């Protein structure tokens, strides 16, 4: 248990384990690391090497879905108590970004606003970008947001979308020819945004290369726990989930919501997330 | 399916059902409502009547846990698409409130900041107050925050805490003699904050009168879905969970985390959420 500055928090139980590692283990790790580092010199693009991300960005736009952001990010908030990670909150301007959508007037005072730390033009280099969804993905004026994702993608180690975040970026072409998923309730609209994407209806999350797409809203948490497991190991991910008292879904194919909302791909008549196959412009 | 202002979203499937209600049903409802309204005139304190909340507040303080807030609130964000609800974000001042804790230096740039809409002095009357937890509950200087909760409680219809939110308010005495729960990993510290509280170790959430306390972090989502079911009916709550693609835990006693972290009450030697029974000041 860690005690620091008067605050109790769940210490990293692996620290003592590493401290006990023998010299031989350390030596072997050093050799392996040196070889990996040397191997990565010759490539600037993503390979199967599994680079470790340390700088994270979250992309915000008006009408983003709060849990799309804070589900996955709170996993990282907690991980960041024991690892050096940086987070940048990115938006078109530095004005606070609201979860509210101007087009919806039913709830004039029900929203939350988040403060960006950087704009599209000022954000430092990123390893990992999280793109949330939300009803705001269906609003007009998102071209600068899409351009930002398209332009920054080649320099990223990983890109993750939650919910309709995949629909938001599909028009950039980044998902073309890739397997991807998204929100199941409005699946017909999601898939209409990327006719050349290999949409996967039955999936909690999908990994294709360095792009992770997840299903609707809460699915972003399972995707992030899976990502943490992929990068830092399943023990680390399990420890985080137990700390956050979250029961993970560890099977990427687990998805009762696809069936519930009638999401299929290719779309069948009458299917498409309860929307009767209708789609809306983004 | 609702179509509004160019945006598709999951319409309230119950609307058409209500629209079909016969005149007799409407008449009966009017009578019942009139009787209930008349009965409530004579009492200013909470009874078993189940008043409907429409104004919600979230209490923020530095070092709050993001998912404690946005897990439950995003349920309400989505509910608010079809119901007139107001949300006030409340803090000691109107400065953005960060998830960061000054005392923890390991992660200097990993935090998010939320914009308050009201201070303790300016917040309009509230029906429902959400008190999150987080490492910030263990920081000094929280007396004004506790005083705010203590002073506003008598005018609330409901008070809900998430995670160490129960430990934050325990020193006010509001939980004395009541059943309550909280974070299981630092259970010993949580329970040390309220020696006169009837702490329930094995619980996803606990309801005592109009105070709902939930277990660690992610448990706040299950508590909020249960609350929505209590107020607006289980069908409404289920529809929200399916929309947010969240698998609810509907059993308030479900809690594998209490056993995992060794949380018991009264505390047994060596128990207390992995902290060996140690406690920290709040």
TrEMBL record, chains A, B:
Span of domain DJ-1/PfpI: 58-225
Question: Which InterPro entries does the record associate with it?
Answer: Class_I_gatase-like, DJ-1/PfpI, INH-QAR
UniProt-listed PANTHER family: ARAC-FAMILY TRANSCRIPTIONAL REGULATOR, THIJ_PFPI FAMILY PROTEIN (AFU_ORTHOLOGUE AFUA_5G14240)
> Could you identify this protein by its name?
DJ-1/PfpI domain-containing protein
């Amino acid at each position: 248990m860690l005690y620091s500055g008067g605050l109790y928090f769940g210490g990293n139980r692996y620290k003592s384990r590493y401290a006990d590692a023998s010299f031989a283990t350390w030596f072997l790790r050093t050799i392996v690391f040196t070889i990996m580092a040397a191997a990565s010199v010759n490539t600037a693009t993503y390979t199967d090497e599994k680079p470790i991300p340390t700088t994270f960005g979250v992309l915000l736009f008006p009408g983003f879905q709060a849990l799309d952001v804070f589900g996955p990010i709170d996993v990282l908030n907690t991980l960041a108590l024991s690892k050096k990670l940086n987070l940048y909150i990115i938006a078109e301007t530095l004005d606070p970004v609201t979860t509210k959508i101007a087009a919806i007037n039913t709830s004039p005072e029900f929203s939350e606003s988040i403060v960006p730390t950087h704009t599209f033009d000022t954000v430092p280099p990123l390893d990992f970008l999280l793109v949330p969804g939300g009803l705001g993905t269906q609003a007009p004026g998102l071209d600068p947001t899409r351009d930002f994702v398209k332009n920054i993608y080649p320099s990223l180690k990983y890109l993750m979308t939650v919910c309709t975040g995949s629909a938001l970026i599909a028009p950039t072409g980044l998902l073309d020819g890739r397997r991807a998923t998204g929100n199941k309730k409005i699946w017909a609209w999601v898939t209409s945004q990327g006719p050349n994407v290999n949409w996967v209806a039955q999936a909690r999350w999908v990994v294709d290369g360095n792009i992770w797409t997840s299903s609707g809203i809460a699915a972003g948490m399972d995707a992030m726990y899976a990502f943490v497991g992929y990068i830092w190991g399943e023990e680390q991910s399990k420890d985080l989930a137990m700390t956050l008292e979250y029961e993970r879904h560890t099977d990427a194919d687990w998805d009762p919501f696809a069936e519930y909302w009638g999401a299929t791909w290719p779309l069948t008549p009458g299917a498409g997330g309860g929307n009767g196959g209708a789609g809306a412009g983004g």
